[in-house]
Amino acid sequence: MSGQTLTDRIAAAQYSLTGSEVSRAVCKSTTHEQTAPKKKHLEYLVQATQETNVNVPQMADTLFERAGNASWVVVFKALVTTHHLMVHGNERFVQFLASRNTLFNLSNFLDKTGSHGYDMSTFIRRYSRYLNEKAFAYRQMAFDFGRVKKGAEGVMRTMSVEKLLKGMPTLQSQIDALLEFDVHPQELNNGVINACFLLLFKDLIKLYACYNDGIINLLEKFFQMKRSQCKDGLEIYKRFLTRMTRVSEFFKIAEQVGIDKNDIPELTQAPESLLESLETHLNTLEGKKP
To answer: What percent of the chain is predicted at pLDDT more than 90?
Structure first.
């Protein structure tokens, strides 16, 4: 179904009558049109999150309401709009989402109106899980991995060992949920899923930068850590190595669907000897003979 439906117009009109311009903009960005949410509606909502007199919980509730729709198009666009606001809106929007016990309960979502509905429902279930994980990570860390400073002076590079060993599994869980979106180039066949993929791609670049910073910090501190910390640190490093392959596969898909190669980070593989030396060090601490 393309174009705004009568239902879309009625929903937007209802909010106009109640005087909620924000809710009306949410409806406009989550119509039945199989295209990405319109830029002007997203920009309006981003600006609204910056205004102190705007009711952020009401905005979020309208998005959750739209995510309860039967149509995959409306639900998917509600998720894309939420994701866009989590990335570009005022941080209080993410803070509010993180403070809620439940976000999107779409693990059983299924639009049976056609084969396309079935296919897209799979991605909606995976995408909602990622957004839930993104909000949960904020609750755990009290910051957004996507927004923090990266590099030598960045948050993950300067974090204490204790915080790092708690924070890295949270970051890994968020990356895992993103990678589980698991889409193939031929499935990126409409404006809505393409908008979603682009947001995921941009998130992964930032998450990977944090991940890399965390691993550098971990390796720099590894030989001064206690035995139990080394054990946890080694597990984190091993998981990092396996995830690098999957991150690389995701970036290959991005390249195949036309994302500029210059925008895709190059992943360098750590030498196997590094893993061996970490294992040897832990064995020494545990009193095991080589």
So the answer is: 81
Q: Maximum CA pair distance of the chain?
A: 77
Interatomic CA distance for residues 245 and 117, integer angstroms: 31
**Nearest one of 89, 93, 86 to 43, comparing CA atoms:** 89
Radius of gyration (C-alpha) of the chain in whole angstroms: 21
What does the alpha-carbon distance between residue 3 and residue 33 come to, in Å, rounded to a whole number?
Answer: 5
Tens-digit pLDDT profile for residues 98-112? 999 889 999 999 999
Q: What ranges in 54-110 are assigned the alpha helix state H?
A: 56-66, 72-88, 91-99
Residues 6+ apart with CB under 8 A from 60: 82, 93, 96, 97, 100
Q: Which two tokens stand for residue 97?
A: 């989402």
- Tell me how far apart the alpha carbons of residues 57 and 50 are, in angstroms, rounded to a whole number: 14
Local structure of residue 53 (DSSP, 8 states)? T
41-84 tens-digit pLDDT? 999 999 999 999 999 999 999 999 999 999 999 999 999 999 99
